[in-house]
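We treat protein structure as text, and this decision shapes the records that our systems exchange. Below, we set out a record of this kind in full and without editing:

***
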Amino acid sequence: MASSYDYDLFVIGAGSGGVRASRMAAQMGARVGICEDSRIGGTCVIRGCIPKKLLVYAAHFHHDFEDAVAYGWQPHHPTHDWGTLIANKDEEIDRLNGIYINLLKNAGV
C-alpha cells in the first residue's frame, strides 16, 4: 500500500538547523515535514556539545572539594557515583529533546 504526502518543504535532519528551518517555514504558512534517524536535537544536543559540557562540569567538583579546605570548608571524603552522573546527563538530554519536539509541534510541523 503506497502512502501519499504533500509538503511544501521536507527537511532531512532534526538538528538545530533543521528544526529552525522547519519552524520558520511552518510559521510562514508552508506545510512542513521533518525526519530524523534518531532523536530530535542533532549531534550537539544528543551526543556532542551538551553531554560533553555536563561531563566536564561534573569533573571540576573533585578539585573544588580539594580547594574548599583552604576556605574553611571541611568536605568529608566525597565519593563519585558514575551511574548518577550518566542518569542526570541523560535526563537533561531528554529534557532538551522534549523542548525541540514541543517547538516543532507548536509550529505545526
Remarks:
- The two ends are 25 Å apart (CA to CA).
- The longest strand covers residues 9-12.
- Helices lie at 16-27, 42-46, 49-59, 61-68, 82-107.
- The chain has a mean pLDDT of 93.
